[in-house]
Amino acid sequence: GVLIAAVLAVLVVAIGLNIASTSDDGLLDAKDVEATLDAAPASERTASPGLHVQTPGIQEPFTSMVFVPEDQFGLMQELGVEVIHRRFLPDESPVEWLAFLGRAQAHGLKVIPWLWPEGWIWDGAKWNIDEQARLFVETVAKHPATLAVYSLHEPYWRDCWGCGYTTKQQQLLYDEIKAIADVPIYSEIGSAAFWTAQGEETAFAEGVCDYCGVWYHPFREGKYERDTLVQRLKDDVALIRERSPNSKIIWGLQAFGADSLGYDMPIAEQLYDQAALVYGAGVDGAGWYPWAFGELYSDVLSDHPELYDTVREVYDTVVMPRRQNLE
């Protein structure tokens, strides 16, 4: 154990010197991280805290896409997509995780990595985080392609009324993940205003998410619930800005149809109008949901090449002008 620790200490110093001498911006790139892991003994292939690099910034507002297969990275660039959400498996290795992040980075993409199944469980009193989940957070936190680590999916809901986590429980998990690595945290919270209205236990607060996923799907049962979308945007943006001013708001843009749930796939004009309203409300980013998915949705964006030009038009005529106005 002492010998391994000594070897790793020398390795950290050596790689740190190499980064200092070869990187103009101080960022650790994919090859640097992979080399670190490859050089370490198999039992020690975790990223050392000594190599931590803060996640570089991204221009806002940005455009993201959910569930993008790797062979579509080039197309994402053409559509103006800058961030992707991606599920990672716990039985994959750190080298595999980093290799994916490196390939995304090569296409100019940031990633919100989501370990699924999640490796943290609330036992009624505290969060238990398994070793593979800790390794995952440590590893992806160091890669410059990582925008934020995905923590929880619909935490206030969790598939049934009253089954969700309280805000305090989510804050405890936020702190636990931050103790593993100083990495931004993404959580798919839903409507912050709605859950705050349900009572103090679910009132949204600071320390839940650095990047907060919020949404309202307005295309359903043959109608475009535009007025409701406008009100939800107003309520959620105002509440999050007030209660957690440092949090970034990432709004989910409906780009799917689900016959079993009554949701309709929007047409081009609706897709554009939805995005214009969302970005106009002052969000920090918005994500087309989803690019591809399983059986839950009967229709997804990747099935509609005729809508690709609209996605790019949103980037060129809505996102970029707003970004320039904020500079």
**What order do the SSEs take from the amino end to the carboxyl end, as H and E?**
HHEHEHEEEHEHEHEEEHEEHEEH
Mean pLDDT: 87
SS class:
alpha/beta
Strand element count: 14
Kindly state the percentage of residues in helix.
40-55%
Question: How many strands, which pairing sense, and closed or not: the largest β-sheet?
Answer: 8 strands, parallel
Alpha-carbon distance between the two ends: 52 Å
Radius of gyration: 20 Å
Q: What is the global morphology?
A: globular
Question: Can you list the strand order of the major beta sheet?
Answer: 3-2-1-13-11-8-7-6
DSSP strand (E) fraction?
Answer: 15-25%
Annotation field: number of helices? 10
Low-confidence stretches: 1-28, 38-55
If you had to describe this structure to a student in words, what would you say it looks like?
40% of the residues lie in helices and 17% in strands. The protein is built from ten helices and 14 strands. The strands form four sheets. An eight-stranded parallel sheet has the order 3-2-1-13-11-8-7-6. A two-stranded antiparallel ribbon has the order 4-5.
Task: Spell out the blueprint of helices and strands.
Blueprint: H1 2-22, H2 30-39, E1 62-66, H3 73-79, E2 83-88, H4 94-106, E3 110-115, E4 120-122, E5 127-129, H5 131-141, E6 149-153, H6 167-180, E7 185-188, H7 192-197, E8 211-215, E9 219-220, E10 223-224, H8 226-243, E11 248-254, E12 256-257, H9 268-280, E13 285-289, E14 299-300, H10 308-326
Parallel strand pairs: 1-2, 1-13, 2-3, 6-7, 7-8, 8-11, 11-13
Antiparallel strand pairs: 4-5, 9-10, 12-14
Helix pairs in contact: 2-4, 4-5, 9-10
